[in-house]
Amino acid sequence: MSPRAKALRTRPGPKEPALRHARVCYDHLAGDLGVALFDAFLKNKWIIPGPEKTFTLTKLGRVKVQTFGVDLEDLENGARPVCRACLDWSVRRHHIAGALGAAILDEVFERGWVTQKRGSRVLEFTRVGEAGLRRVFAFAETLPTS
Q1: Does the pLDDT at position 83 exceed 60?
Q2: Which of 80, 92, 132, 141 is 20 to 30 A from 6, alpha carbon to alpha carbon?
Q3: Cα distance from N-terminal residue to C-terminal residue, the chain
Q4: What one-character-per-residue DSSP string does 41-64 give?
Protein backbone atom coordinates (compact mmCIF):
# COMPACT_ATOMS: atom_id res chain seq x y z
CA MET A 1 0.00 0.00 0.00
CA SER A 2 1.43 3.38 -0.93
CA PRO A 3 1.55 6.28 1.53
CA ARG A 4 -1.35 8.68 1.29
CA ALA A 5 -0.51 11.82 -0.67
CA LYS A 6 -1.38 15.17 0.82
CA ALA A 7 -4.09 17.12 -0.94
CA LEU A 8 -2.75 20.03 -2.95
CA ARG A 9 -4.33 23.37 -2.22
CA THR A 10 -5.53 24.89 -5.45
CA ARG A 11 -6.46 28.46 -6.15
CA PRO A 12 -10.17 28.73 -7.00
CA GLY A 13 -11.53 30.41 -10.09
CA PRO A 14 -10.05 31.26 -13.46
CA LYS A 15 -6.39 30.80 -14.35
CA GLU A 16 -6.36 33.77 -16.73
CA PRO A 17 -4.89 36.72 -14.77
CA ALA A 18 -7.05 39.31 -16.57
CA LEU A 19 -10.24 37.39 -15.71
CA ARG A 20 -9.16 37.15 -12.08
CA HIS A 21 -8.31 40.86 -11.94
CA ALA A 22 -11.53 42.44 -13.24
CA ARG A 23 -14.56 41.02 -15.02
CA VAL A 24 -18.28 41.47 -15.43
CA CYS A 25 -20.50 39.32 -13.21
CA TYR A 26 -24.00 39.77 -14.66
CA ASP A 27 -24.01 43.60 -14.59
CA HIS A 28 -21.50 44.44 -11.85
CA LEU A 29 -17.74 44.44 -11.18
CA ALA A 30 -16.16 41.17 -10.03
CA GLY A 31 -12.67 39.75 -9.61
CA ASP A 32 -9.91 41.17 -7.43
CA LEU A 33 -11.05 44.76 -8.03
CA GLY A 34 -14.68 43.95 -7.23
CA VAL A 35 -13.73 42.21 -3.99
CA ALA A 36 -11.42 45.07 -2.99
CA LEU A 37 -14.27 47.52 -3.65
CA PHE A 38 -16.63 45.52 -1.41
CA ASP A 39 -13.97 45.35 1.32
CA ALA A 40 -13.50 49.13 1.11
CA PHE A 41 -17.24 49.70 1.52
CA LEU A 42 -17.22 47.55 4.67
CA LYS A 43 -13.98 48.96 6.10
CA ASN A 44 -15.11 52.56 5.61
CA LYS A 45 -18.56 51.78 7.01
CA TRP A 46 -20.30 52.87 3.81
CA ILE A 47 -22.52 49.77 4.05
CA ILE A 48 -23.83 47.71 6.94
CA PRO A 49 -25.22 44.16 6.79
CA GLY A 50 -28.94 43.62 6.37
CA PRO A 51 -31.07 40.50 5.91
CA GLU A 52 -30.41 37.79 3.31
CA LYS A 53 -27.09 39.02 1.93
CA THR A 54 -28.37 42.56 1.50
CA PHE A 55 -26.55 45.64 2.74
CA THR A 56 -27.76 49.12 3.63
CA LEU A 57 -25.90 52.25 2.66
CA THR A 58 -24.97 54.38 5.66
CA LYS A 59 -25.13 58.19 5.55
CA LEU A 60 -21.43 58.21 4.69
CA GLY A 61 -22.01 55.60 2.01
CA ARG A 62 -24.85 57.57 0.49
CA VAL A 63 -22.63 60.64 0.24
CA LYS A 64 -19.78 58.57 -1.23
CA VAL A 65 -21.80 57.00 -4.04
CA GLN A 66 -23.76 60.17 -4.84
CA THR A 67 -20.50 62.12 -5.08
CA PHE A 68 -19.25 59.44 -7.47
CA GLY A 69 -22.29 60.00 -9.70
CA VAL A 70 -24.77 57.31 -8.64
CA ASP A 71 -28.43 58.41 -8.57
CA LEU A 72 -29.67 56.80 -5.35
CA GLU A 73 -33.26 57.87 -5.85
CA ASP A 74 -33.44 55.82 -9.05
CA LEU A 75 -31.89 52.81 -7.30
CA GLU A 76 -34.18 53.02 -4.29
CA ASN A 77 -37.29 53.28 -6.47
CA GLY A 78 -36.31 50.26 -8.54
CA ALA A 79 -37.52 46.70 -8.14
CA ARG A 80 -34.19 45.11 -7.23
CA PRO A 81 -32.30 45.34 -3.93
CA VAL A 82 -30.01 48.36 -3.74
CA CYS A 83 -27.00 46.45 -2.44
CA ARG A 84 -26.35 42.72 -2.24
CA ALA A 85 -23.30 40.58 -1.66
CA CYS A 86 -22.36 38.28 -4.53
CA LEU A 87 -19.84 35.50 -3.93
CA ASP A 88 -16.87 35.94 -6.23
CA TRP A 89 -15.91 32.54 -7.60
CA SER A 90 -12.30 33.52 -8.27
CA VAL A 91 -11.41 34.30 -4.65
CA ARG A 92 -14.41 32.97 -2.69
CA ARG A 93 -15.14 36.39 -1.17
CA HIS A 94 -17.91 38.87 -1.89
CA HIS A 95 -18.22 41.75 -4.32
CA ILE A 96 -21.02 44.35 -4.61
CA ALA A 97 -24.09 43.33 -6.60
CA GLY A 98 -27.63 44.65 -6.79
CA ALA A 99 -28.60 48.00 -8.25
CA LEU A 100 -25.62 49.69 -6.59
CA GLY A 101 -23.09 47.29 -8.10
CA ALA A 102 -24.59 47.87 -11.55
CA ALA A 103 -24.68 51.66 -11.09
CA ILE A 104 -21.03 51.79 -10.01
CA LEU A 105 -19.95 49.77 -13.04
CA ASP A 106 -22.11 51.94 -15.32
CA GLU A 107 -20.40 55.07 -13.94
CA VAL A 108 -16.95 53.51 -14.41
CA PHE A 109 -17.84 52.86 -18.08
CA GLU A 110 -19.29 56.36 -18.42
CA ARG A 111 -16.02 57.88 -17.19
CA GLY A 112 -14.07 55.91 -19.79
CA TRP A 113 -12.09 54.14 -17.08
CA VAL A 114 -12.74 50.65 -18.47
CA THR A 115 -13.68 48.72 -21.58
CA GLN A 116 -14.94 45.19 -21.90
CA LYS A 117 -12.76 42.83 -23.90
CA ARG A 118 -14.67 41.73 -26.99
CA GLY A 119 -16.22 38.28 -26.63
CA SER A 120 -15.20 38.03 -22.99
CA ARG A 121 -16.24 39.02 -19.49
CA VAL A 122 -12.79 40.57 -18.93
CA LEU A 123 -12.77 44.25 -18.04
CA GLU A 124 -9.71 46.19 -19.13
CA PHE A 125 -9.16 49.22 -16.92
CA THR A 126 -7.04 52.08 -18.15
CA ARG A 127 -4.16 52.99 -15.86
CA VAL A 128 -5.97 56.22 -14.98
CA GLY A 129 -9.24 54.34 -14.50
CA GLU A 130 -7.93 51.76 -12.07
CA ALA A 131 -6.05 54.44 -10.12
CA GLY A 132 -9.24 56.54 -10.07
CA LEU A 133 -11.36 53.67 -8.76
CA ARG A 134 -8.81 52.92 -6.05
CA ARG A 135 -8.54 56.61 -5.11
CA VAL A 136 -12.27 57.35 -5.03
CA PHE A 137 -13.14 54.26 -3.02
CA ALA A 138 -9.97 54.23 -0.89
CA PHE A 139 -8.54 50.79 -1.46
CA ALA A 140 -4.97 49.57 -1.84
CA GLU A 141 -3.00 48.11 -4.75
CA THR A 142 -3.12 44.55 -3.46
CA LEU A 143 -5.79 42.43 -1.89
CA PRO A 144 -5.26 41.28 1.66
CA THR A 145 -5.07 37.50 1.87
CA SER A 146 -7.69 35.66 3.85
Answers
A1: yes
A2: 92
A3: 37
A4: HHHTTSEEE-STTBEEE-HHHHHH
